Amino acid sequence: MKKTILAGASILALGLASPAFAQSTSTVTQNGTGNAADVTQENANTSDINQVGDNNDADVTQTGINTTGNEVDIDQTATGSNTANVIQQAGSNGSFADVIQDGTSDGNTANIDQASTQVASAEVTQTDSLNGFAEVFQGGGNGIGNFTAIVQGDSSLVGGTVSGATNASSIVRQEGDNNVALNIQTGADQITLIDQLTASSGNDAIVSQGAFGGSTNDAFILQIGDGDSAEIAQSSDGNDADIGQANGTGNFALIDQGFVGGAGVGGDNNTASIAQDGSGNFSAISQNETTAGSGNIADVLQAGDNNVSFVTQDGSTLSATVNQLTDGNFSSVTQGGTGNSITVNQ
Known about the structure:
By secondary structure, the protein is mainly beta.
């Protein structure tokens, strides 16, 4: 353990110094096959792990109550599967955890647990891999202002060629208020879930799947609270998007399917569902954008006052069902194509 010592401090002062002010720094660099690193730190800590090789494993646990500024950086490059686990325990406010798993590997796994944290940040990037899994938990009883970003596939976020990330999955669970979750998956056969629960408020959830042609992706966003926002954007074919918002006032939900990098190429056989419970909610669903598509389905359920719903469908054999209950609801459905079906109950 490397201790920071103030210049001119006496031996007596050192002996009486409180451990709450101690700082730990750990740097681990490994090259080869079957690398493993296990780091445990107390108080305000920094841990940096860099592993190059096959079948890497990195585990970091940072403990301490009422500490600030914990930081973890894990960078793994391999052709075999990588595993990274980060635990930043209760009371660690302003913590940061970053996991990067790169290379043509199969089965990368990343887990970040930031329990009872405030203003914490967690980032996971898995590129060029198959069957990757990433999970982040933030919040707990007093979680406020936490941020999560998970990127599986093309790490440039915009542009470029889709490279890998097939069959990837991710889970984000956030408890508390004013949290933000961003999940980006390029490629095909992805699944992602964002849970922002425990009667929280002011949370944002954004999912982008299949940029530049990915198909058969599934996205789920669940929010319980006031003033939450949820957005899902999916490109290409056979995608499913579901948003559920409960106990909320003024929530916002948007599902956009069939776009490819904003080019409006169109998608086939997509399914979209939005369920909102509360007053002043808003929802919008757009499918196929401008061309191609068959068998798309859009469902909207709103229970509450002053709700608004928009559904736009472009393709063939489309179906839209909108249920709005109580007073002041508004619905607008636009369809174009063959074999369309509309059901609106107000």
